[in-house]
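Good morning C.,

I know you're traveling, so I'll keep this short. The sequence:
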Amino acid sequence: MEEMDRETRGLFVGLSTLDFIYLAEAPPRSNQKIVAFDSVITAGGPATNAAVTFAHLGHQAQLLTAIGNHPMGQLIRSDLAGLGVAIANLTPTSQQSPPVSSIIVTQSTGERAVISLNAQRQQAQPEQIPSEIWEQLNGAKIILIDGHQIDVGVAISIQAQNIPIVLDGGSWKPGLDAILPHINYAICSENFYPPDCSETKAVFAYLQARLPQPAHIAITRGKQPILYSQAGEEGIIPIPAITTVDTLGAGDIFHGAFCHFILSHDFPEALAQAAQVATQACQSFGTRAWLQDA
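The tokens, ready to paste straight into the viewer:
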């Protein structure tokens, strides 16, 4: 690990879930009951796992998310407090349960099956952003937005002054077009398809036309090389060959690591270094075990 800089603060805007993760032979079929080999309960969500990674790599990570005041939210708070992630709660008086994800990881392949409500029932508005976020905003060195709190993400991206903003583009979400003009680094999965885009080439063209120039765009593809475009020049980043145990959260961890490395590396090198961290995480079960080995 590189020398830590606890003065560097990142803001992570988006989804928090409570994840129930099971390691099993395979997901259950209809009307089938199965017994898991192992299980863990952790906080999850793209922005959340990215914030955990950023904090683990030596920085201050602040998570802006909707957790509410339901007792189950305390499990999320406790997990993140132990990992050094500060929480700014968009919905501090809500009694609604935080989103819960049930995840089954297939033991032989590391592939995961997920069912979750995500943030669809807990969409916050800009007026719900805590005052300390606005007061401290321009002290952040980097911001990540995962698109699960669109209106909040738009407000933050408009007000951020000269702060690099990273988009975690796991999938296209209505309203992202309002955020794209403020995005410096769009890191998307191969399942990210904006309107009228059905292939990778069209995705690159769509983002190139909407991001500030020079645009930095990358598309991750699991075990396949990362495709990227930097100021119109294209390239690929190979993925290290590993024996995969669990792919859950790999993209989120990649984004958090990218936020760390882009502070001191150029775009291709930051992508390559982030890929190293994400592949390390894929070699253990769950989204936390890798932290003990790093």
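Safe travels,
E.
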